[in-house]
Each structure stands twice: as C-alpha cells, then as structure tokens.
C-alpha cells in the first residue's frame, strides 16, 4: 500500500496523490497549485507518471486545488474514468470552465503586454488547457459515487462518506488486500452554515488526513452569525451600498442562506440583494439541485417547495454590462460579487465606484492575504489602486472571521477518534502547522508522519523520526503568513 504525492505534500495546494494498491494505480484528486508564482510554476511540470497507465481517478470534491489539473491529465493521455459524487461532477464542470476561461483571458492579456514590451510570443506561457479540454475531461466523469455505498473501482472496494466540507465532498475508504486506507480529502468545519457534520470514520490501517487548520480553532458559529447580522444592521442604517466579496462555492451560498434567514426573521430589512457572480450563480443552482444532502432546515425548505438560497429581494446579475449598470443603481443594496480576496472579478468595479463613499459598507467574510487588495483594505490603507485608479477608502469595513469550510484542530482530532489505531499521514498543511499536530496525534496513541513531496511512502511502514521526512526544516512563519496559506485552500477560485 504505497502513496506518492505530487501536490498538497508539505503545502496546502495542488492535491494529487498516486496510490499503488496491489497492482493497481489510482489517482486521488488532480488539483491545481494556487497562490503565487513559485507554486503555480509547478502546474507546468510534466506528470511524474504516465497518465495513460492509471487504472482510475477518484475525486474527493470540486475545489480547484483538487480538480484543476484534470484537463491537463486528459491532454497528456488519460482516457480512463473519473469517479466522484454527482454534485462534485456538476461543480467541477463550473470550476474547470471558469479556470479555462481565466487562463485564456490571462494569456491574451500577457501576449498584449509582451508584444508591447518587445518580448516574443513564444516566451509567454500558454494556458494549461482550454475550454475544449474541459469538455473532453467532463466526458470521462462517472458521477456515480454515493455516500455510504461501496463501489468496486479497478478491483478495489471504495466507499465514499460525507466529509462535510462543500457540496458533494467525500472522504474515501479504500479496501485493498494489504489493508484498509482512508483518504480524507478536505474535511468540514463541524460548525458551518450548510453542511452536515462529517460521518465518523470506520477503523482503518492507514489514514491520510488534511491539516489546513490543524493548529487553530475557529470562532463559534453563533458568534459569527451575531457579528454578521450586527454588521448588516449597522450598514443598512447608513443607507449606502453593502459590498460582500465572496468565494463562489459554499461561501456565497452560506451568505445567501443566512441573508434569507435574517430577512425572514425581520432582523435585516428587505433591501435588494444582487448576486453578481456568474460562477456563484451556477454553483448556487447546484446547491439547490443537490440540497437534500445539506442540513435539515435546507432539506425541509426544499421539500416545502421553497428556495433556501433566494432572499425575496434577490436579483441575479448575468452579464458584465448589467453588472456595470448596477453602478448607477440608486439606494441601499447588498452586492455579493467575486472574487473573495478582491484581486479580480466584478467586485473590483463595485469597489471603484463605492469604496470612497462614507455611506458604503464593505463586509469581509473571507480571509484576505496581506498582499491582496482586500488585505490592504483590512490593514487600513487610506487609498488603494483599483483598475488603474487611486481610490480613497472611506467605506466602513467589517471583518467577519468565522466562516470557514475547513475542519479546525478539534474537528480533526474528533475525526481521528473513531478510526482505530491507524498510521496517520499528514497532507494539505504547512510543515509548521503539521509539526504542532504530530504530538497531538501521538497523544491518541497513533503514529503521525508528514507526507514528503514526490517521494513514495509505504503507508503501513515505519515512517519518520518526529514525523518529519528528511530535509524538512521547521521555520516558524508569521501568523499572518500561515493563515494566508491556509486561506488559499478555502477559495478554489
Ligand atoms: Zn476544499
């Protein structure tokens, strides 16, 4: 039972794990590296295996850092099936098409810049893939995994279970002749808006677990809701625009659901709500479609024929022309737009038109990395540069920190508590964070090891001294830096 990781090893992005179970080779996730040039360079590496020789690909969930390199895998020769749950397939299509579009647009812009700068076209890296590659990839999807139902894939028994992270997210139990292995994918925050808790795992021999937030605990959900409601009430009183930058998957739906509940309860007046993100709009349709896997109040609303993601004053903004027209819209309104860290997307022109007005409120519901536009605003910049213009920051800025879709330390330890006595392998985390988590797993009587980058590990083998593969040096990072790295894992955009 061997594993070789080509992403999410000693880092939080680019999840890709090659399992060798008996004679079969199964790839779990095929994600893109995100977050800065050095990491993103790795997306251009050739696969360290022949894609044509894989027996199967299985996906845990649809975030870009778990599915983003699939079209590349197909381009380079993979012709087999890609297994996942039905909602993961639906969301993955949205995520991959968006990724192809952003890459194509980015490439065209880079070409223009390069030509003006006298650089030849050949020096500009082309998109990793285009829309046609995504369509070819989607044709290989077999969205037939169901929580709790065992499927035989390449001769291996595979049972997906609810991971509670985003819609459709699963962890995988794989039963091979050598032993029982669990791949966690990303695990959910047990206190989040829409997801039911992860199903406690069965006893296994080896367990590969994500560790994004393995060194911290999230704020209680009730407190987050109080903060959000308080910020909205104050904002409505100033009678201006209320801007909410949001990630398109999970966060946008949690915000819509919460807004609807607050308005229905009379806590927030029924002012117009504009959902100004085509990707969030498509993802919200999937949340509606597959809402029967979400928390009971969502299921009950759906059964009663209601749409729990649609505040009565919701307007969906399909085109960018209509988005521009919103700039002239008079009166108070809530505008939800991407992207989450304000580094691009439609939120930028809303900020340009409203950030300088004292009547505007900016409600931040996601972590902002210090170098992002959002990070600069949170840090108290007087002016920020948006679309080539200096814009004064006069809006009231609210920061609500508790909306995480990832398990925190308590959640991760709770997850491990029913798994028997497996060898625990840590992925999808910063080395410093994992280093804090290794002894906590040790206190539960289990051996924990960080998964090395690219190196094959025997999942039932001895592991490493202190849980650290050779060459891993622990350098304490600033809290802002490691929180920023973890936050990248939240967005998928
Ligand atoms: Zn995720």
UniProtKB/TrEMBL annotation:
Which Pfam families does the protein's record reference? Answer: Beta-Casp, Lactamase_B, RMMBL
Q: Where is the Beta-Casp domain?
A: 252-377
- Which UniProt keyword terms apply here? Hydrolase
- Species whose genome carries this gene: Deinococcus xinjiangensis
UniProt region (Disordered), positions on chain: 471-493
| Top-level taxon of origin | Bacteria
Keyword Hydrolase assigned to the entry: answer is yes
* Repeat among keywords: no
What protein name does the entry list? Ribonuclease TTHA0252
Tell me the CDD domains matching this sequence. TTHA0252-CPSF-like_MBL-fold
Q: Domain Metallo-beta-lactamase, which positions?
A: 13-232
């Amino acid at each position: 039972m061997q594993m070789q990781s080509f992403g999410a090893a000693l880092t939080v992005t680019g999840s890709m794990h090659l399992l060798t179970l008996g004679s079969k080779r199964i790839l779990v996730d095929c994600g893109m590296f995100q977050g800065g040039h050095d990491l993103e360079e790795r997306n251009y590496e050739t696969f360290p295996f022949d894609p044509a020789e894989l027996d199967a690909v299985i996906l845990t969930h649809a975030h870009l850092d778990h599915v983003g390199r699939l079209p590349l895998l197909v381009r380079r020769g993979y012709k087999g099936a890609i297994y996942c749950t039905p909602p993961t397939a639906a969301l993955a299509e949205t995520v991959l098409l968006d990724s192809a579009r952003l890459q194509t647009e980015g490439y065209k812009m880079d070409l223009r810049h390069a030509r003006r700068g006298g650089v030849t076209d050949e020096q500009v890296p082309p998109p990793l893939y285009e829309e046609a590659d995504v369509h070819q990839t989607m044709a290989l999807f077999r969205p037939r995994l169901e929580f709790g139902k065992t499927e035989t894939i390449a001769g291996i028994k595979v049972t997906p279970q609810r991971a509670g992270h985003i819609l459709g997210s699963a962890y995988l139990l794989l039963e091979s002749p050598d032993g029982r292995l669990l791949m966690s994918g990303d695990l959910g925050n047990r206190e989040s808006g829409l997801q039911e808790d992860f199903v406690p795992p069965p006893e296994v021999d080896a367990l590969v677990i994500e560790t994004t937030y393995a060194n911290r605990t999230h704020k209680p959900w009730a407190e987050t809701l109080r903060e959000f409601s308080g910020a909205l009430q104050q904002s409505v009183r100033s009678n201006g625009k209320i801007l909410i930058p949001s990630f398109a998957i999970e966060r946008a739906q949690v915000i819509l659901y919460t807004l609807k509940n607050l308005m229905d309860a009379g806590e927030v007046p029924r002012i117009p709500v504009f959902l100004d993100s085509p990707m969030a709009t498509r993802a919200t349709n999937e949340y509606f479609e597959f809402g029967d896997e979400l928390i009971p109040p969502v299921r009950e609303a759906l059964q009663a024929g209601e749409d729990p993601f649609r505040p009565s004053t919701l307007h969906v903004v399909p085109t960018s022309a209509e988005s521009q027209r919103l700039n002239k819209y008079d009166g108070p309104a809530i505008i939800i737009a991407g992207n989450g860290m304000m580094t691009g997307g439609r939120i930028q022109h809303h900020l340009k038109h409203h950030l300088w007005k004292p009547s505007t409120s900016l409600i931040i519901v996601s972590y902002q990395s210090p170098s992002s536009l959002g990070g600069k605003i949170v840090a108290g910049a007087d002016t920020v540069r948006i679309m080539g213009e200096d814009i004064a920051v006069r809006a009231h800025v609210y920061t609500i920190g508790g909306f995480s879709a990832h398990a925190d330390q308590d959640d991760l330890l709770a997850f491990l508590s029913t798994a028997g006595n497996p060898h625990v392998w840590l992925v999808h985390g910063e080395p410093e964070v994992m280093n804090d988590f290794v002894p906590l797993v040790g206190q539960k009587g289990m051996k924990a090891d960080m998964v090395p980058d690219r190196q094959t590990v025997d999942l039932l083998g001895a592991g490493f001294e202190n849980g650290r593969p050779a060459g891993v040096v622990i350098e304490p990072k600033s809290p802002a830096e490691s929180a920023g790295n973890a936050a990248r894992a939240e967005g998928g955009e």
